[in-house]
């Protein structure tokens, strides 16, 4: 199990705290420092069953500068979104937990963290 976090994020700290309380075996990836490649982002999206725009923090300053809210959300533009997430990792929703069963969850709630732990 791996968790992508930004240590400044309270949701990330809460997810890590819950993983520790449950004695989970996991690896922390500080994705702002260890930036995921476009291929890693695609792999996580597949595990999540989501599209890149589904995990994009569109309220961030970088998103506004890029005009992401106006980008088409379709297959033809999917790679453009993935490239933007790789170039601007702050735009990636957090935390993301890759579960041991090959799936992943955006673990913004305690229930989502527990869901990942149960997989």
Automatic annotation (TrEMBL):
Q: Which keywords annotate this record?
A: Oxidoreductase
Keyword Oxidoreductase assigned = yes
- Which Pfam families does this one have? ArsC (PF03960)
InterPro entries in the cross-refs: Arsenate_reductase (IPR006659), Arsenate_reductase-like (IPR006660), Thioredoxin-like_sf (IPR036249)
DNA-binding: is it a keyword of this entry?
no
Q: Read off the SUPFAM superfamilies from this record.
A: Thioredoxin-like
* Family in the record: Belongs to the ArsC family.
What name does UniProt use for this protein? Arsenate reductase family protein
Native organism: Streptomyces lateritius
Lineage, uppermost ranks = Bacteria, Bacillati, Actinomycetota, Actinomycetes, Kitasatosporales
């Amino acid at each position: 199990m791996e968790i992508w976090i930004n240590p400044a994020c309270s949701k990330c700290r809460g997810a890590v705290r819950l993983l520790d309380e449950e004695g989970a075996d996991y690896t922390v990836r500080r994705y702002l420092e260890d930036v995921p490649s476009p291929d890693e982002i695609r792999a996580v999206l597949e595990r999540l069953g989501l599209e890149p725009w589904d995990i994009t923090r569109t309220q961030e300053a970088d998103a506004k500068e890029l005009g992401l809210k106006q980008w088409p959300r379709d297959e033809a533009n999917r790679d453009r979104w993935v490239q933007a997430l790789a170039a601007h990792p702050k735009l990636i929703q957090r935390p993301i937990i890759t579960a041991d069963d090959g799936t992943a969850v955006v673990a913004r709630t305690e229930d989502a963290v527990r869901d990942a732990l149960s997989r």
